[in-house]
Design brief:
Blueprint: H1 12-26, H2 31-38, H3 42-49, H4 57-66, H5 72-82, H6 89-96, E1 101-106, H7 117-130, H8 135-151, E2 159-165, H9 167-170, H10 176-190, E3 195-200, E4 214-218, E5 224-229, E6 234-237, H11 240-256, H12 260-271
Parallel strand pairs: 1-2, 2-3
Antiparallel strand pairs: 1-4, 4-5, 5-6
């Protein structure tokens, strides 16, 4: 059998494939054996090893699990796919997929984990038109968002608390049809047993404690990780001294925001102006 030689230094994707092949061979596993352990075909394993297929987040996590712990391949996958994203975000996503509680606050746009594919595509395409990302990266961004959403659908899903500034539902994105479907998805999200959705209305004014989007993750060991973004920079924070005050501020925000029932009523009012 002809074995394709890889140059691990040519790209991160080639490095992933070479590392995968090296680990597999060292354990004496054939591609079929590894595929059975991961739930993938030997053809898929071969395509990743030879750099013909980009390893997805799900594939990388399955690989780490098959190898018996650690997240080395997951982290390498994130570097491959999202090295151009804001600093701290790839590491944040690694925590997000394992969190037991998520607390999200967003201003201006619907939080990514609640976006419909059409809404997400409009935002990505707009970034392409501005010249800030390439069309290829835009498609990758939308696909990766779908993977993040899918990672939260598991036998024991995390609790997800979402507070959105009223601007998120008032700002039209993509036209009435896309916005209408997005608002409908928010209403459906609020009916799930592991979710809480609240709107922070404009009238709370200065009582809104955050001026930027904030994500707070509670992990299985009850540690809390915070991620915040500006237009040009992302920041992941794991220091208790700075994260706990943000958690307190989030609780204060929830107290000021509308109840879930009142929030859904406001969303439905906005929906009346959409198909």
């Amino acid at each position: 059998m002809n074995i394709k030689e890889l140059n691990p230094d040519s790209s991160l994707q080639a490095a992933f494939g070479a590392r995968l092949r090296g680990v597999r061979v060292a354990r004496g596993w054939k591609q079929e054996e590894l595929g059975e352990r991961m739930g993938y075909s030997s053809t898929h394993i071969s395509a990743v090893e030879t750099g013909r297929k980009v390893p997805t987040l799900r594939f990388s996590r399955s690989l780490d699990a098959a190898l018996g712990g650690g997240d080395a391949f997951e982290r390498l996958s994130l570097e491959i796919r999202h090295g151009a994203l804001l600093e701290g975000f790839p590491e944040y996503v690694g925590y997000e997929g394992r969190a037991v509680e998520l607390r999200l606050f967003e201003i201006g746009i619907i939080p990514g984990l609640l976006q419909t594919p059409e809404y997400a595509k409009v935002l990505a395409d707009s970034a392409v038109k501005r010249g800030s990302i390439t069309p290829e990266f835009a498609a990758e961004r939308v696909a990766f968002l779908a993977e993040r959403q899918e990672a939260l659908v598991r036998p024991q899903p995390p609790m997800v608390f979402v507070v959105m500034d009223e601007s998120c539902i008032r700002r039209p994105i993509g036209g009435p049809e896309i916005m209408g479907a997005q608002l409908e998805r928010l209403v459906a999200f609020a009916t799930q047993p592991n979710t809480v959705l609240q709107i922070a209305p404009f009238e709370i004014g200065e009582r809104r404690p955050f001026d930027l989007p904030v994500n707070l993750l509670t992990l299985a060991d009850r540690a809390v990780v915070a991620y915040t973004e500006s237009q040009a920079q992302g920041h992941l924070d794991r220091e208790t001294a700075s994260v706990l005050p943000m958690l307190t501020a989030y609780h204060q925000l929830q107290a000021e925001a509308l109840s879930q029932a009142a929030s859904v009523a406001m969303i439905n009012e906005v929906r009346k102006g959409t198909p």
